[in-house]
Hints:
- This protein is 78% helix and 0% strand.
- By secondary structure, it is mainly alpha-helical.
- Among the domains are: 123 residues, Serine Threonine Protein Phosphatase 5, Tetratricopeptide repeat; 94 residues, Alpha Horseshoe (Leucine-rich Repeat Variant).
- It is flat, with a radius of gyration of 34 Å.
Amino acid sequence: MQIVKRAIFVVLMILLAANAALLAQEKPQGEDKAARLFQSAKDAVFSKNWRRASDLWRGFCEQFPQSQWEAEPYYWLAFSLNQAAREAGDFAKQTAMREQAMAKIEMLLERFKGSTWATDARMLRIELAEGLVKAGKAKYKKFITAGAQAENGSGFDVKLAALDALLQMDEEKALPILKKIIREHKDKNIRAKALFVLSQHDDPSVAPLLGEIARKDADPYVREQAIFWLGQCGEGLGVLIELYSESLEKKLKEKILFGFSQNDDRRSFDKLLQIAKSDPDPELREKALFWIGQSDDPQAPAALMEMFKANSDFELKKKIIFSLGQLDSDKGAAFLKEIAIGKYEDRLREEAVFWIGQRGGDESADMLMSFYKGDANVSFKEKTLFSLSQNDSAAALKHLLAIARSEKNPELRKKAIFWLGQSDSAEAANYLQQLIEKE
């Protein structure tokens, strides 16, 4: 009986295997072909070969109009056509390709209304419509207007995209809608996105509204975004200066400091300097110092050095040295040298030496070597050796080798040899090998 059961089992296995083979053979070859074509078209998108992508997606949609991917191929066809249009040199071709893309988007939205690709398709439709309207195809403006006036919903990004496009065409219609969203919408993320759209528009009412939101919005994130965009807005500096003088929480004031740093107006630098000198909050003073160190203002080095000499607070002096070290300025380097060789606390001198080492270059290396030779303080010499090791220049290597060869203090010589060992220089390696063989 067991033999019969085993035989039946074997027969069943053979039949199942045969059936699987038949199913594999009967599996529509079209599915394999569709999958290969789908992947080839996706690869063309990833490689940004928009002409090839357009051709492949067009072929796919014609051969497999009812594929398992439903709306996705139509979206990528429209997307690729739009991208290819940007690269087309002929204006008429650009317009024709965008109209083809628009037709595919309309087909997608008609056939696959509930698709997860529908929102992306509506966003692309806004972009296509904007390009076509600029090309003189006024009939497509309806998509922009309708999108801007749509009710709030899950596709709110489409509404904002439409408003952004409408601002370029009819600001009298778009601005009131956008301002209403910024002031009244319950979702903080949507208010923040609307602020971004508004900030890209050059209108006299933008900066005052951003200031209003920075003062009054219920959500700190939205208020921070308003301050950020004020910093990017040409007319926003005056509003930022007003805001800083008001009783805002520290985090918002830090955002305002960043906003000052983004503005090339001389008033921004003057305000940062004023805050660095006299703000009652030491952390805000330090933040202002940091941004002065990132400044291109020619008065920054002298202003920082004046503050260094006028202050007695050790931590603040360290911050000033750091800011001097960040300046891409010969004057900044000269002031660091003045501190390094001056009659200041050793820790401050060592800070100056460190930031000179971070500047790199032969000139800084030569400066460090002059400190090393001119100062008897062993701790100071050790810091100078470290800074030389951080300076990736031929002069720094030359000086380290010279110290390793001739330094009388055994501890300092060992330090120099150690830092040479961290170098990837062939000359340093040869010297170290000679030392080993000599021993």
